[in-house]
Amino acid sequence: MKFRKFASNLDMYRKVPLDLLEGTKRGSIISYCAILTMVVLFSMETLSFLTASTLQTDVSLDLNKDPKVRVNLNITMMDLSCNYATVDIVSPMGTSLNVTSHLSKYALDAEGVRQRYMGRNTQQHDIILSDSLVTDTIEQLHENGEDAVSLDEKSLQEAKATASYLFVDFFASWCSHCKDLAPTWEVLAETMTEAAMELVDEEFHHLEIDHDYTKEDFDEALKVALPVMVGKIDCVNNKDLCFNQQIWAYPTLRLFINGLPVADYRGDRTVLEMVHWLAHVEESHKKQVGDETFNVLLADEIAREFLSVSETRDEMLEGPDHSASGHPGWAEKMRKHRVREGAMDWKDEDHPGCQISGFLWVDRVPGNFHIQARSPNHDIDAKLTNTSHEIHHLSFGDPGTVDLIRRNNLVTPKGFERTLAPLDGNVYVNHAQHEAFHHYLKVVTTDFNDPYLKSSRSRYYNKEGIRAYQVLSSSQLSFYRSDIVPEAKFSYDPSPIAVYHRRSYSKRWYDYLTSLMAIIGGTFTVIGMIENTIHAARNKKRR
């Protein structure tokens, strides 16, 4: 009985009889205000609970176990031809690896316009650098005279004016490839002379002219009948001439037709292959002008006879295929600041560039990759190598990470995206010879651990979270010895310290419920206090 009486006395929610309550218009208005206030506060608290988050950043040792990292690049070399532009990765052990599989090269004109054709970043190791069938030395070949004409600036102009087809070897006396090619080049010239002699003899015989013609008559006829004049220019003694012809590597084998440069030969440096190429060029050219007289074809036959005497064709063609068919703004800065020995007026059309784009896979250890002029078939002139470049894009990691961060509305520090590719849009112009810019990149692993992404099926997501790589960069101008070819160098160094970003939600579910109850109770209490104050003031006024 006592317990029941005590339990009945414990009533925290005692009710006042309705007969003792009196409704008022003022109370109704205040009640609506209280309900509206609670609804607004309730909505704002719910929205805050669902979206409120802050960025929490931790720094600790890098736990990234990826053995390699991807390097995304898009770089324009302003004054370096795609024929010589090479990208190498250098490991910590100093081993250099030419990169070919994931990079594309696009030849550019002086205005930086991408051309329609695409080149490959490959070095043609299969090219034959000299004719193995030419066993005589250059001295032995010169015993009976020199058929490859030595030219200088004046005689080159005369040769271009008199010879319809002029094939010139631009060489340097210190160039090893040039020395190896010299006997082959002399035999090529002898082949053309032999073809011209046969043409002259045939012409004199056709005209029933006695073969006791004078040497002067024969020489003049020989000049006219010569299928292709073969010349050579020593660029050590003719620096200005070679510079004006835009010769950057040796040997450069250039064909002139009617005084105009048409093409540089890049095939096998054998007598037969060079004559094949010349015959093909002559045939294409004369079809355009409507001439059916193909004098180089006779030289081709003579070259075949030379080949059959030395070695059978089947033996010669073992191995690689030898078929003839196998074969913007910074422009203004370059024009103003170009300083070269003996430089003439800058002509845009004489300075083609190369856009290199794609990606590399590098070991996640300190190393570097560099872009330089190199060719297994030429010796590069260091003083004429210009590595001025514009970086359109350079970043590390998966290129889709930025889009994933945006799609998932991840919280990032201010200016975060810029730190992923800090060199983008920068232009680095070399103002003098024997210099190049080197870039130093500190690569910092940055992980995003967002609990709401744990169920994500995106291919970019791993158990650690979304991963990006921030880059701390610095660039400086480096100088080279006169005998070393400059290179645009990008050194990267993974940081042992990683940054971890996570979204921190400020309220738990029980905090949310507590806030709701506080809103309801607090609103009811505050509005009640206001109503009681108004009621007391009115009663006092009445009294």
Task: Explain how this protein is built.
With 543 residues, the chain is of the alpha+beta class. It has 3 domains: 19-52 and 511-542, no CATH class; 60-109 and 352-505, no CATH class; 141-326, Glutaredoxin (3-Layer(aba) Sandwich). Helices cover 35% and strands 27% of the residues. It contains 14 helices and 22 strands. It has helices spanning 2-9, 25-51, 138-141, 153-162, 176-206, 215-225, 239-244, 271-289, 296-310, 313-316, 329-337, 401-407, 416-420, 509-542; strands spanning 53-61, 68-77, 85-90, 96-98, 103-108, 114-120, 149-150, 165-171, 229-234, 249-250, 252-257, 260-264, 353-363, 367-373, 379-380, 389-396, 426-428, 435-448, 461-462, 465-479, 487-494, 497-505. The strands form 4 sheets. Strands 1, 3, 4, 14, 18, 19, 20, 21 and 22 form a 9-stranded mixed beta sheet that branches. β5 (103-108) and β6 form a beta hairpin. α2 (25-51) packs antiparallel against α14, α5 crosses α6 and α5 crosses α9. The chain is rod-shaped. The model is unreliable at 116-125, 311-329, 333-344 and 454-462 (pLDDT under 50).
